[in-house]
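Example record

One chain of 109 residues, shown exactly as stored in the release files.
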Amino acid sequence: MTGRGLDHLIEQNETDLGFLSAYGGGESPAELLALIQDAICEGMKLEEVSEGVQFTLERENLPLVPSDINRRGFLKPSLDNKGVTVTITDFGPEQRRFIERLVEFILYE
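Predicted structure tokens for this chain:
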């Protein structure tokens, strides 16, 4: 393969794989903050940090278990009887589901 062939292949893959962003990943902390802000409701706090976005919700009896926040896309998880704090590092299906569950819990409580 010539040098041009490799360049062409890289360009083609950059173009053809854009759909992967729909699954989350690769966002900067500022981009993550904007995405997550559109999904949250009152009572949820967000803070941009170097690794992503720190999400905090202080509320008792959340419908969560530790495995909900001990997975890819989450860092520094903390869950207790007073609430949850976790750093979200990408906004894929698992993170969307996490936020949606909490929004539903708050709105229909």
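Notes: The first strand starts at residue 44 and ends at 49.
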